[in-house]
Design a protein that fits this description.
3-stranded antiparallel sheet, about 20% helix, 4 helices, about 230 residues, alpha+beta, single chain, elongated
């Protein structure tokens, strides 16, 4: 897909040497890094270990999505005191949102208690909001499998993946096309110009976005995948 976007066809002779292939590889890697930065989080499948706060509800929320599998979940980040929950204690409730749910809930991790009078009009001691500790430890796999697929001997492979045990790519078509489009932009417009005019000829490299700003084709494709904050 990326080769066709850059050169029109892989059989037209546009790729004349290994130098062309090397250049193409650099453009694709550069475009992939740009996509991660633009959406605000890594998209490629990887294994993460993350300590999380809890607020007394049914859910923990991890920062990397989509969740592929929860490998281990502990009630403490102190290994000598931690208790590992069994896989039947929780479920991936929403892999795209990063929700891990547990019927018994996750205990509130705010342990900082102010004395009477500090926060509660002198009536009783109180926990101050916004002081939650990151006491739940989750090891999980998240992200999309790239165009090359994922071998079963990869460190990122897991048999318990929510998206199944296929080794094929799970990368969404719009993200795949955004990488190809951005790589093509780097190829045709390495200086990042919005437009270029030579005499009566004007070439427009970007179109107006919803706020009137100039948005590239890749940015339009990735708009649904951007993470706020």
């Amino acid at each position: 897909d990326v080769m066709v976007a850059l050169f029109g066809s892989t059989t037209t002779g546009a790729i004349a040497s290994t130098q062309d292939l090397d250049h193409l590889g650099r453009l694709v890697r550069r475009a992939s890094a740009w996509v991660d930065g633009y959406v605000g989080h890594p998209l490629a499948a990887a294994i993460y270990s993350e300590s999380l706060p809890a607020y007394g509800g049914r859910r923990l929320i991890v920062s990397r999505t989509p969740i592929r599998a929860v490998l281990r979940l502990f009630d403490s980040t102190t290994t000598c005191e931690a208790t590992e929950l069994t896989s039947t204690d929780y479920v991936v409730e929403d892999r795209d949102a990063g929700f891990i749910a547990r019927p018994a809930g996750f205990a509130w991790t705010n342990y900082d208690q102010a004395g009477a009078g500090d926060f509660s009009l002198g009536l009783t001691g109180a926990r101050l909001p916004g002081n939650e500790q990151r006491s739940w430890l989750v090891e999980y796999a998240a992200g999309f499998v790239g165009l090359g697929g994922l071998s079963t001997d990869s460190a990122n492979w897991t048999t318990g993946a929510v998206d199944g045990t296929s080794t094929g790519s799970t990368l969404p078509d719009d993200v795949r096309q955004a990488v190809a489009s951005r790589a093509a932009e780097f190829f045709t417009n390495p200086l990042g110009l919005v437009s270029r005019t030579v005499g009566d000829l004007r070439v427009q490299y970007a179109s107006a976005g919803p706020g009137g700003e100039m948005a590239s084709a890749a940015e339009v494709l990735l708009a649904p995948w951007r993470r706020a904050g």
